[in-house]
Structures are given as structure tokens and as C-alpha cells.
Amino acid sequence: MPDTALAETAPAKINLHLHVVGRRADGYHLLDSLAAFAGAADALRYRPGGPLALALEGPEAGALAAEPDNLVLRAARLLAEAAGRAPGGTLVLEKHLPVASGIGGGSADAAAALRLLSRAWGLGWETARLAPLAARLGADVPVCLDSRAARMGGVGERLSAAPALPPAGLVLANPRVPLATPAVFRARQEMRPGGFSAEAALPAAWADAGAMARDLAACGNDLEAPAIALCPAVADVLAALRALPGCLLARMSGSGATCFGLFETPAAAAGAARHLPSAWWRWGGGFTTGGRPLYSAAGEPAGA
Ligand code: C5P
């Protein structure tokens, strides 16, 4: 058993809707998005001693290199600098989430590193103190600090309360094609140079998964069309999700290529995920908050 004081989970971030509402002078896009977190996660452990190092393991580790610019190492160095200490120890990243796939794997890993090292180095820094460091690492890192559903504004770093999520199931599927976020934003800009969406109108809470799916159907992911233009396999994934029995809504997450399907329960989602092509990365289960399952753990990983 790993020492839980020196271990963290890094849950996948799902953008239930993503509207591009404007563009800053520096080219970054202003967003309105409801982010939630899946039971699918990477794991991060810490071993004290020695200079700062990163070891990679797990089924998706091959796609990643433990290079100095790895976001986990950048997070460690940034925290050490802010705390006025030398970075040290080995971070072991167990990679389960596909890389460059629109579910914030790298951002979740960086946020987990900030949380873990804050404890391991005896700093005891809470989210409020870590948030400015998180924002410097990437637009998606702040929302991953707490790993609970939040409404994202600004370029992603401005967080506000999310509608209370009902019990629901979630299927994730990725065609195993990496998509670079800047390329997808660039393609959106070429397709709709002056076209921006309005912010979504969402209620304070949803009674059930059906109500959530109906309201989300009135929103969209503005990066879906440009992602499909760059990676037509995204359209195949969406079609396959929509064809699964019990799928209430299918949409791409973030800048893709991972897509999600909403289901009534984690068990229904886990069962449905097994029908997807085994060549894809696929997972079925429920939402989580702060690394803890929100709903009964009826959903089990499928093919992950
Ligand atoms: O902040 P992050 O490293 O996740 O963003 C990667 C790239 O995605 C940025 O360099 C930018 O090109 C694009 N991006 C954007 N607008 C955002 C977030 C990201 O244009 N809100």
C-alpha cells in the first residue's frame, strides 16, 4: 500500500460544454465551460531524497518523456522557487490517461504535483496559495487543483460555482490520435474568425442525468468542428458513443480528441463502454470530486 500522505490522484477533466466567447489581444481565447471530473485518473507518488526526478510508469507512459519541460517537473520547480527551497525527491507518475487528449491529463498531473509536494515538503499550502502558481503552468491547471466541478471563465483560470451535478454515468473514448491544443484553437479561428458564442444558461442544480443532458444539449463544444477537421476520427467516436444503449448525450471534451457520453448511472456507463472498439482508449464509470467517488462505485473501469 502506498503511503497516502505521499500519493495523489489526478482525475481526468471533462468539459461538459465549452463555448469560445472571445479572444484576448495575446491570442488566448476567452472561454465559458462547465468542467467536471471523471473517476478515470493518473496517480502520482513521491519518494524523498536525491535531486528532483520524474519516473514514468503505467499503460500510457510510452507517449510521454520525462523531459525537463514535463509539466509535473515544471510544477515542482515553480513551487520550490515560490517556497524558497531547493526542489528534491522523485515523483513517480503512473499514466493511465491518454496524452494530448482534451481531458487535461497533463494539467491534472501538474495540479496533483502542487498538492502532493505542498504536503511532502511540509509547506501546507492550500488551494488559494497554489492557484496563482497553477495559472502560470496552464489555463486548465487551476480547475484541476480541487478536481471538483466548476464553471471556467477567462482563459480557463477564473473559476465559479458549478450547477450541482446529479448522479450520472460517464463513458470516455479516445481514437488514439493526439491533438495539439494550439492547432485546434488556430483551426477554430480560421473557420469562425469573428464568430463567438454566448455564455451558456445553466440552472443551479440538476435533478437527474436526463435533465442535465437536455440542458447541455442546448450548449456545445465550439472546438468540436475544428477538431473533426483536423482529426476525422473524432466524428467516428461521437457516432459510436451516440449509438450506445442509454447514451443521453455525446460530445467532445476540451480540444479533443477524447469524447464523452452521459448515462443514467456509472454501472450503465461501465457496461456500455465495453461495446466500443478495443483499439480505442475507453473507460466507463462515474464523476468524482477531489479524488473521492461522488456516487456509489458501481462503475468499474472498462478496458482502461
Ligand atoms: O494554457 P495551455 O498550455 O493549456 O494552452 C495551450 C495552448 O492552447 C495555448 O498556447 C493557446 O494556443 C491555446 N489556448 C487558447 N485559449 C485558452 C487556452 C489555451 O488559445 N483559453
From TrEMBL:
Residues 70-145 form the GHMP kinase N-terminal domain. ATP binds at residues 98-108. It is an enzyme of class 2 (transferase). Its EC number is 2.7.1.148. Residues 208-279 form the GHMP kinase C-terminal domain. Belongs to the GHMP kinase family. IspE subfamily. Catalyzes the phosphorylation of the position 2 hydroxy group of 4-diphosphocytidyl-2C-methyl-D-erythritol. This is 4-diphosphocytidyl-2-C-methyl-D-erythritol kinase. It comes from Teichococcus rhizosphaerae.
